[in-house]
């Protein structure tokens, strides 16, 4: 059975430059290992006024309030609606122009700045099965191939209690890959793939170089944003919070 051209769909691997004896995956394995998390730090404005009288302290309090109010902008709900509206016509990212990608990224960054979950790896909201609704990853989108040779839907499942992850393709290939996760901080994990399943049935041991990193930059009960170490953006929606990754 031929391998899917999308077989590394959700985590992008960091490939070793050494000439090791690890088995070489076919080029068609380039997409089930493509999802990543990357850190983004947001710094707030600071105000440093030197006058210290009582009246000035009151004035300073009023001054500091208005910039905070103006900078707050849209809340998470409004930003989520704007983000979903922006990606709806883009076929998961396959039809996105550079301008589209920049707009989606800009909205995503605003949403990341107001994420209600500051430590995603400690949250039960991360557990379950997610569906990928948008990405910039070329290895996943496979836009150089006819649509009938692209996976119609890609899923990712994570369980934080067992530190396991699973990526799954739907029609026409149904490939899968499972991985162990090692927390690097409260938002970021190292990913080491251990087993591929061709067509969801035929197991193949993953080579040692099949690894990467993943960081969760936004998380609530229905939406997750992840960024990869190759700079790709991944947006997913929760479909089954009860799903368990095989151990």
In short:
With 247 residues, this protein is an alpha+beta fold. It has helices spanning 54-72, 76-87, 98-112, 138-141; strands at residues 9-10, 128-135, 154-159, 164-169, 176-183, 188-198, 202-205, 211-219, 223-228, 233-240. This is Probable plastid-lipid-associated protein 4, chloroplastic isoform X1.
| Structural class based on helices, strands and sheet pairing | alpha+beta
Q: Per the principal axes of the C-alpha atoms, what is the gross shape? A: globular
Number of strands: 10
Which percent bin holds the helix content?
Answer: 10-25%
Give average pLDDT, whole number. Answer: 79
Q: What is the N-to-C order of secondary-structure elements (H for helix, E for strand)?
A: EHHHEHEEEEEEEE
Hey, roughly how much beta strand do the residues contain? 25-35%
- What is the level-2 CATH architecture name of the domain at 72-240? Beta Barrel
* Main beta-sheet strand count, sense and barrel state: 8 strands, antiparallel, barrel
Strand order of the largest sheet: 2-3-4-5-6-8-9-10
* pLDDT < 50 stretches: 1-30, 35-71
CATH topology of the domain at 72-240: Lipocalin
What is the rounded Rg? 21 Å
Q: Count of helices?
A: 4
Distance between the termini: 26 Å
């Amino acid at each position: 059975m031929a391998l899917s051209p999308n077989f590394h769909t959700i985590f992008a691997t960091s490939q070793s430059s050494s000439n090791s004896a690890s088995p070489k995956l076919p080029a068609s394995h380039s997409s089930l290992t493509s999802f990543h998390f990357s850190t983004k730090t947001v710094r707030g404005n600071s105000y440093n006024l030197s006058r210290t009288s009582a009246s000035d302290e009151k004035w300073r309090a009023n001054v500091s309030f208005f910039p905070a109010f103006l900078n707050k902008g849209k809340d998470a709900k409004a930003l989520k609606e704007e983000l979903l509206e922006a990606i709806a016509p883009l076929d998961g990212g396959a039809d996105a122009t550079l301008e589209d990608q920049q707009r989606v990224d800009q909205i995503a960054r605003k949403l990341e700045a107001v994420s209600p979950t500051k430590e995603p790896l400690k949250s039960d909201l991360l557990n379950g099965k997610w569906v990928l609704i948008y990405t910039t990853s070329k290895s996943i989108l496979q836009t150089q191939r006819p649509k009938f040779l692209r996976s119609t839907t890609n899923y990712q499942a994570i369980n934080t209690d067992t530190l396991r992850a699973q990526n799954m393709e739907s029609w026409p290939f149904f490939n899968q890959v499972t991985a162990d996760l090692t927390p690097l901080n409260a938002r970021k994990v190292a990913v080491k793939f251990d087993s591929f399943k061709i067509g969801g049935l035929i197991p193949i041991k993953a080579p040692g170089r099949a690894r990467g990193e993943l960081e969760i930059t936004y998380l609530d009960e229905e939406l997750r944003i992840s960024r990869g170490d190759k700079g790709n953006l991944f947006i997913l929606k929760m479909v089954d919070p009860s799903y368990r990754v095989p151990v």
